[in-house]
Amino acid sequence: MMKRVLWVCNIMLPAIAQELNLPYSNREGWLSGIFEKVKGREESFKLGVCFPVNSFKELPVQDARMLNSWGYGFDIPLVRVKCFSLSGIECYGFKEDVSRPDVHCFNQDVQLRVIINDFKPDIIHIFGTEFPHCMAMVRAAYRPERVLISMQGICKEIGNVYTLGLPEEVEDRETFRDHLRKDSIAKQQTKFLIRGAFEAEAIKHCFNVTGRTRFDREYTARINPKAEYFHMNETMRREFYSGQWKMEDCQEHRIFLGQGDYPLKGMHFMLEAMALLLRKYPDTMLYVAGNIITNYTTIKDKLKISSYGKYLRELIEKYGLEENVVMVGKLNAEEMKEQFLKCSVYVCPSILENSPNTVGEAQLLGVPAAASQAGGIPDIIEDGKDGLLFPVGDVEKLAGAIERIWDRTKDENGETLSQRLSRRAREKARIIYDGERNYARLLEIYEAVGKKG
Fold it and tell me: Which CATH architecture has domain 3-235+434-452?
């Protein structure tokens, strides 16, 4: 019998948002990769997808599941869970304040239970652990043996190191925007620690976990040694499976960062490294994708700037980088690929990561990469073979890794280091991120979890 699998996602998937003509986020692009593989494969399993929405007005189909009381011995607020169908996939929206993912609401447990009762899944697959709905879904499922959690970032560990490299006065500072949104650097760190507690609670009560690095495997084993761990690699967005980086086609001293809008991504380290690189390479350029948080031209900009954005501006001004740093804003997959192919090196200076998507995307394209030796990154980049690693926060070694990639000395095979790293990274990525292989592995995991139910 075909199994029924319910996905619990942190965002509305881009494919769903596009169908509804709604704005969407690419921050979990690997989910789109696996969704594309699953969609339309009727022989495998029946898929349902649920995701948080700020307002049910976002969902045009008025098919509501309602509940006034649910055996608790007291009345609860009316629950509406709106659902609709997309290419045979049942899609459900549940209410959550996505701007406050550190806040759990009892009503959410009931909403998720309504979804379970309606879809009747054999397996519940939760992608990501950091939001309260993960813990709520584990509780609502009742049967932990049929719940599977996919590890993403590990929030408790992130919270412990979130402010690395920041001056104390910057950590403690609150801009007008920070005060208004209750979102200072210190509060951001606290939110990660709160999410880490949600995360640990969910893992403790789950029997099945998927991950892809020693970092996430060791962490989940410490939290719940009884949970079965299934290794499964991710599938990237389809746009990154075509196209190839070539040294002769890129801009020689152009650096690309996939994100830099909060301290975890380590852009402050990259700016300090830029000051060192410019001494030898005055044409060095840094291009940064993602939310632009450094604007400071108008009064409105000044009111909206965060403490971290202000600190990045201070570093830019301190080192005279105004003409060398370009914030390109949010990019879709094709635009990201274009930035990758133009750069001579992709840098991931993060304080902590499990397995950043941008590293995988760079590897698929063959872009030479330098990354911090943090979390699970050493599991996806082998230092000196298919990329370069440097100690977290070590600005001199970060700059040194970039210089090594820029060195045009050829080896006995006529390859520069950047060409050799590019070739090997692409060869490995074609195996790790192979969509068909990863889809087959997903089916194996579902088969194993399904037998427990």
Answer: 3-Layer(aba) Sandwich (3.40)
